[in-house]
Amino acid sequence: MNFSVRNHRLHLDDQPVPYRASPNRTPGFVLKPEGIVVHDTAGRLNGDSSVRWLCNPEARASAHLVVYRDGKVVQLVPFNAKAWHAGKSSLQGRPGVNNFSIGIEIVNPGKLKPQGNGRYRAWFGKVYSQDNYPIVEMTTPEHGTGGWMDYTEEQLTTVEAICVCLFAKYSLSWLWPHWKVKPTKEDTNPLFPLRHLQAKVMGREGEGGSEGVMLANTNQRRWPSYQDNIIQVIPKGTVVEVLRSGWYVNGDEHAQWFLVSHDGHEGWVHGTLIEVT
Ligand SMILES: [Zn+2]
Question: What is the Å distance from ligand 1's center to 245 Cα?
Fold first, then answer.
């Protein structure tokens, strides 16, 4: 995937990505981006509906890019213009994050409400089943409690390639999810491989993680459940970087899981299989 930027428009293999102009930007403001804020659309899985909404003046919201479930990218605002994605926000005490960032929306239904029998309802009424979608129920300090749908490989690959390109083009220095710059927000969700992406674009920085040692040969998983989601086996005795913990809820079972990084992969291990130091 070969992304580049020309005239503040994203190109894929030398062709501009589809462009739908959003009116939800600040006229006359020349943006000099310093970092990237990643978001969930919190909308239907068909990305066109989110693009339509973000191009509607009534939305009073936009982003520079929307990344669909199949990896398709649509640009709504050029990178030298101020899009309205972060709202009332601040980063390290500096307010108005839209004034110095690029916003990327990733198509995802947002926080889901458990309905029983592995079914989860989005705020817009659509019900998704665990039979058809990778959904887990978990709690983290940043996100609270909810059901969360995993991102697709196509989305994650595309987002990573775009961020690498934008970091180089604009000499960016940071990447954070919306919840970091506006704590009342939940996006991106707990399954987003934030540390992996940050490491790819800016080296290992950010909040210091702790370490853990594996107590057994352990399956590292894409999300905290025993569904068909194994990334790799981490051998007993391996020391891994611990990025975050979360509680997975399934009926009466409340289990703590840890998000760990090993061999360049970010994924979850069951709390009974790791000793965190
Ligand atoms: Zn957001």
Answer: 22
Segments of the chain assigned to CATH 3.40.80.10? 3-110+150-202
Cα(40) to centroid of ligand 1, in Å? 6
Please name the residues in contact with 84: beta carbons below 8 A apart, sequence gap of 6 or more: 24, 25, 26, 60, 61, 62, 98
Instruction: Tell me which residue of 62, 60, 59, 64 sits closest to 80, measured CA to CA.
Output: 64
**Tokens describing residue 1:** 């995937």
Q: What is the rounded CA–CA span in Å between residue 175 and residue 37? A: 6
Q: What is the pLDDT of residue 207?
A: 47
Instruction: State how far the Cα of 265 lies from the Cα of 164, in Å rounded to an integer.
Output: 17
- Cα–Cα distance for residue pair 71/132, rounded to 1 Å: 19
Distance 83 CA to ligand 1 centre (A): 12
7 CA → ligand 1 middle, Å: 26
Confidence of residue 198 (pLDDT cuts 50, 70, 90): confident
CATH class of 3-110+150-202: alpha beta
For the chain, residues classed under CATH 2.30.30.40 are: 210-276
Measure 220 CA to ligand 1 centroid, in angstroms.
28
- How far apart are alpha carbons 275 and 277 in whole angstroms? 6
Q: What is the pLDDT of residues 228-237, one digit of tens each?
A: 889 999 999 9
pLDDT at 93 over 60: yes
Domain 210-276 architecture? Roll (2.30)
- Residue 171 phi/psi, 5-degree rounding, is 50, 50
* Confidence class for position 255, pLDDT limits 50, 70, 90: confident
Specify the amino acid at residue 66: V
Q: What is the pLDDT of residues 1-40, one digit of tens each?
A: 899 999 999 999 999 999 999 999 999 999 999 999 999 9
pLDDT reading at 249 higher than 70? no
